[in-house]
């Protein structure tokens, strides 16, 4: 297995290569947390070639266990390489599966309805949007380079979803706004190894699931151990923004009422009842929307902080 650093995602974006297929084991690890939400629901996987998609495999083989109503999967006919496809599809198709008919509890070929699409299967096409409107929950691994546009569409049509994305998408204006407003949050796990059509594997270190389905971890408060007023020297104040630097989520102090800059990994622990999200460095979207002057990259003692920071405030300060 070839191990590739996070630069692989940047290189993939430059090359318009979004063909990273999710492993079945990673799908199982995440979706086991949402079992109760699938009963009597129509699931749509709209960025998958069902002939190789592990998403289609998971939902078709677990159709009765989850109590699904219908499974729909669309296949993209490759005309450009920046969308999911094997690149050799003769035509775009969509598959519908409504469950086992012969009693063997296996999705046999004769039980899967295969229909041609008039267009190329792009999730933005009119006929794919028509299928989206039928869906209750969308579950897939959308193209990295089209992530913003993809999420915008899900929000526009009011769909619930569980999707894979680059964690750096948190820093996109459109995605951060949804996170700040508690309309989107992170799932439970972090897939790392993905497959490509040629059979090779690539490993990334900053992939996560994004969802708007309830998760139990969002109701769990982060246990805080540190005290700011006993260790003030360990929490430097930014030169150009009224907040302190907290370099590790584990070091968030229990007794500080002001704004704190924390790593974006904080979102894995975020409970909106415990913390308020204020803004994000270096973009400062909220400040700009308020018509205030953007500070730029945060600085500490004249040195720029090289890392993105989520700016938060503790709602439940312990004195």
Describe it for me?
The protein is an alpha+beta fold. The protein folds into 2 domains: 210 residues, Rossmann fold (3-Layer(aba) Sandwich), CATH 3.40.50; 87 residues, no CATH class. Helices cover 19% and strands 21% of the residues. The protein is built from 8 helices and 17 strands. It has an 8-stranded mixed beta sheet, sandwiched between helices. The chain has a 4-stranded mixed beta sheet with strand order 12-13-17-14. Strands 1-9-10 form a 3-stranded antiparallel beta sheet. Strand 6, helix 6 and strand 7 form a beta-alpha-beta unit.
- The number of helical runs is 8
CATH topology of the largest domain: Rossmann fold
- Unreliably modeled segments: 1-16, 78-88
CATH architecture of the largest domain: 3-Layer(aba) Sandwich
- N/C terminus separation: 51 Å
Walk across the major sheet and give the strand order.
5-4-3-2-6-7-11-8
Number of domains: 2
Total count of strands:
17
Major sheet characteristics? 8 strands, mixed
CATH class of the largest domain: Alpha Beta
N-to-C series of helices and strands = HEHEHHEEEHEHEHEEEEEEEHEEE
Global structural class: alpha+beta
Helix content: 10-25%
Shape label: elongated
Strand content: 15-25%
* Mean of residue pLDDT values: 88
